[in-house]
What does this fold into?
Amino acid sequence: MTEYPSALLEKAVSEFSRLPGVGRKTALRFCLHLLKLPQKEAEELGQSLIRMRTEIKHCNRCHNLSDALLCPVCSDPRRDSGTLCIVESVRDVLAIENTTQYRGLYHVLGGVISPMEGIGPADLTLVHLEERAKHNDIQEFIMALPATLEGDTTSFYIYKRLSSLTSATFSTIARGIAIGDELEYTDEITLGRSILNRMPYQIKT
It folds into this structure.
């Protein structure tokens, strides 16, 4: 006998429980709630998930999520194209945008260098970042990577690769963010101040 009265319910619970932070009890609550919804609302939810998965693209310029070839940030002529903020993930773009303190552009790496996890420079969008450094009039690169060993290693690697390609300045966000913290979990006021009070990037010796 299965744990649930319906094999379809059990399958749905199993799929929901694969989401981050969702256990089987929470997944069951989601499923039972969906069963109570009017058919049309449930179908709209399902269709929105399918469209999200199949139609969302990565921005051709910065690798942010987008519905078009360029994301809303890159296609906004009011943004400061001379400032480029380098971040680990799309979640970091969302966190910084929520502060309303930054008006430049972004470059999403898609991760940080982590030999323990098998992530090397070739797994990141560094080649595209180099192309942007060569062919765009960027005056400042902001390193907005996690305050971790992996984040610091990635910042150092990027600095060494880009500093020979451009005369732009390099800065890093102020350490109002605790060591080991991820940007997405930092409150908006602290993160906003860290962007505004950024400092010149210095290589640790």
